[in-house]
Amino acid sequence: MKIIEGRTERARDRILLYGVEGIGKSTWATKADTPLFADVEQGLEEIGPPRVPIDRFMRSEKPIIEWPAGASPVSMQEFIRDFPMGEYRTSVIDTADALNLLMMASLCRRKGWKGGIEDPGFGKGWTALKEMWNELLVALRALNARGVEIILLAHTEIKNFSNPVGPDYSRFRPKINDKIVDKVKEWATAVLFAQHEEVVEGARDIVKDHGKGVGTGRRIVYTQHTPAYDAKNRYNLKPILDLDYTGFADGRAAFWASKKTGGPVQGSPPAAPVPCSSPGSAGTPAPTQEEPPMGGGGSSGPLTSHDVGLVLGEAQKVLGITNVADTKQRFMEPMGVKMLAKAEQGQLAGIVELVAAAYMSEKKPEGDLLAAARTRAKGLLA
User: What is the pTM of this model?
Assistant: First the structure.
């Protein structure tokens, strides 16, 4: 029995990339190493990458999707089984949500469920669908183990998150069935969220319930988890990258190069969680521009209104404050602050100290966010 110790370099990942329609997910995947697309979505004509039309899930089934004459479609099962590894090094499934619909149709037709996936009752249909996904993911994992990168593309949707430690809120998530999506995220070695960069005017001011979204024209991909969206990676990538596969591949290569040389790992630590624009409600903020992380305890430099806004957002959750007006009255008004964006350094530091005192009086433990802010505040008030 051979025991593997330490890290083993991975050059081929299992990637779930999801984002809004038209953001450029398919174009991102075309930059991978010799990609071959499983075209389930029927939307690749304008881009024109090498692709195989998919018209059914299993080889033995009758076609479910209609393609033009001469398209020569195959089943998803055949696409994986007969993948031409001598010519292509990346398998792209476009898209996972379209494939999910195909699998549901396949299952219902095979089982004779004319009323749909819930026809058998008591969740039996969803259990059967989950088993189909398990088989698919195992097959894709086996293909990946043979040296083929797997890229699952998916659209996004906004779903309410039932928060077990505080108020519920909404977040972006892959547009795959609720019963399946967590299994797919676990399977993936990297989950990336693609979005148009948006600056939300007024969203960093805790006094305002919502702001005005303004696009910058930049297309970006988020690589690390926040309350607003799911994302992960294993290579300490920067929290925000341009929507370009090369950036992901370069970050991965830099990670492994640093491990070989013993130098510092490239990338940066996760960004601080982004609070909802109206904490305690179901509102979701637009992801904000990349900023230097505040964590680390020993962080130096002046406080910003963004820093204090994050602290106040966390305070509302920890202290059970349900509306912005109470936050303003309890922490901002005593320091003479009406708008965080216009507050002076001493006022911002004073707000942080008021939050810390409230934590202490209610015997609440300080998290990393407040501790890092207090480090800065002490320096400003010294």
Answer: 0.68
